[in-house]
Specification:
Helix content is 48%, strand content 14%. The chain is of the alpha/beta class and 372 residues long.
Amino acid sequence: MPRYIGQAPHRHGSDAPAAVLLVNLGTPEGPGKRAVRRYLAEFLSDPRIVELPRALWKPILHGVILRIRPARSSALYAKVWTPEGSPLQTGMAALATKLQSALKAQRAGPILVRHAMRYGKPAVGDTLRELAAAGVRRVMVVPLFPQYSGTTTASVFDAVGAELSRWRWVPELRFVADYHAEARYIEALARSVETYWQRHGRGERLVLSYHGIPEKYFRAGDPYFCQCQATARRLRERLDLREDEMIVAFQSRVGRQSWLKPYTEEVLQSLPADGVKHVQVLCPGFSVDCLETLEEIALTNHARFLRAGGERFDYIPALNAGDDHVAALTDLVLRQGQGWPEFDPAWDAARASAQQMAARTRYEQLRDGRPR
């Protein structure tokens, strides 16, 4: 068997579009226990997620966690599942479609936009192979994690590298590491908050809840905590809030080890005792709404706040496929794509077609042994 995968024979003079690949964490294919177990097995088997020796971790994962957690997680997914499927899946598809339209409106060159999941489907490898079949020779990978972490962004890089390491003809590649301080991203967050305030009023505190990571990852050099704080500072300045009006916290803690603090659940439970009765929560690290925002924040932590004596809890939705989010990603992608001909504002379709035809003619002459 050949070691490397070869794409279909190259057709000289054929279209070679560039591609933008949006990648998010992932979702099970359904809310049932079997689907959730498959998803968790893939997710928790990634050494980027759990940095333990495999010989120690695998017996725990397969002997304990995957016997217990799928039932609990399945019940949680069932709370947020829609007739169209996973909120993350439908949200990513909508975002990719809108970004495709926005890029087409600004650039005449052939640019494809696709989405993939690091865990689950559509898989990163499958989507890259589909792009290769479409003739793509340049790929920009955009992990939709504004704040970089080895547990998210780097894991996407691993998946892309693992797939491309098997290819005979590797495409030109660009990889967006983070966009936590991008002006258009901060503006999109700020406008989402301001729009919510205009429609529903303003709370006493704005809590920014980011997904947590173990503290030891931060101490080992992961920049995630610092980038979360940087995003929060820029957003607070843009919204003209005092420091005491915004709180940064971290959610989704798992296990007994120490994670980034303060913990969102503890913050929300303590605020009513401090006289805060109306709180609003925004999750800037989640580009598209998912289980962690719709169930963990909007349902579970909502209930915690009310039980602790709070009176009103508002969850401000993720940016999703909103116009401001699409504009921010369009700006990011166009800047990252500079130098690639498909992203050139002066792309000339007629000239490109003529060049393709000339290349095809030259190839046919060489193939047939005809004089040039």
